[in-house]
Structure formats: structure tokens, C-alpha cells
Amino acid sequence: PRSTLFPYTTLFRSRSAAERHGWAQRRVPDLPDVTFPRTHHLPREARTLLVPHWWDLRPDEVEAGVTSMRRTLVDCMRNLPLEESVAIVDSALRAGDVTVPELRRIAAAMRGRGRARAIAVAAMATSLAANAYESTVRAIASTIPGLRVQPQCPVRIGDRTLHPDLADLALGIVIEAESFAWHGETAALTRDCAR
User: Does residue 118 contact residue 74 with C-beta atoms inside 8 Å?
Assistant: First the structure.
């Protein structure tokens, strides 16, 4: 949008671009991420309205005022905390906007700061996580030494096969990520907890 503070089209980036692409997130940010050319001076009062970033983007990295899907994935994997970036890339995979091999190639092709982080995020990425909440829990679990969880891993109990949100089969641990946000009603949450 145009305003007196921004006399040009706003360019959304990172979390805001991920939201525009329809990818789920750990939490929607309070302020939009906006990219400006490196030489642009931003008035101080504008910083209360957005999270500024300075970068000279190529024309192929911008689509309709938003960073392209590829550029958004690069920015998220490079700059966001693990639990935020994993949730976004998992959602992009679930949406079919990128494949695991493509995501790994994107991360491997990066140069400079954040490349190692991006490669780690791409290695963790999966479309199996049902939602951003599960992706967040998996990302946090990955930081615990000795814990190796897998999403939606089949677990046989008697004559039933269940698929817990996360499981470490070697340790015999299952982790369920339950919340009202993903169940919508008390009865659905209660059923899932009982399962």
C-alpha cells in the first residue's frame, strides 16, 4: 500500500511473504516484514509500523509486491529461528509449492551467512507434519541431545496402528502436540487426547 511514509509499493518479505503465499506459521507476526533497497532511508516513525529489512532484490525475486516463493524460503531458512523456519518450510511442502529435493538444492546453493542453518532446516523439512504446531514441537525436540523424533510414525498397539504426532521409536517415546487452535472444539481435543 502507498502512504506518506511509503511512497511506493510495499514489498513483503520473510514471515509476511510466507503468509501471503498461504504457508502456515508458528505465529503470525504482529508487524509485517518489509524489504527496502539498501540505499533507502526509512523515517524513524515508520519502524513502529513494520520490521524493516534492507536488500537489493533481483526482479525475479519479486512477484506482485511479495518476495517470490524461492526467495521467501531462502529468507525464512536463513534468518528465522529454527522453530519458525521449520513450520514455514513444512507448510510449503504440504502445499506442494516445493519438494524436499528442491528445498535441499535451494539451501545448498546459498552462500554466506545462514547457509548452514538453511541446510539444517531443509534436512528436517517434511510434509508429514499436520500443522505448524507439530512442526514447532519437532524443531524444538531436535535440539534435545539423544532425542530423534519422526513425524506421524506408525506405532502398533494391539490390533490398532496409531500415528502419533512425533515418535522416537528407539527410546519408546511419543509426543502429541495438542491445542484448541488445531482442534476447534473441546470434543475433538478430548478424542485426540484419549487416542
Answer: yes
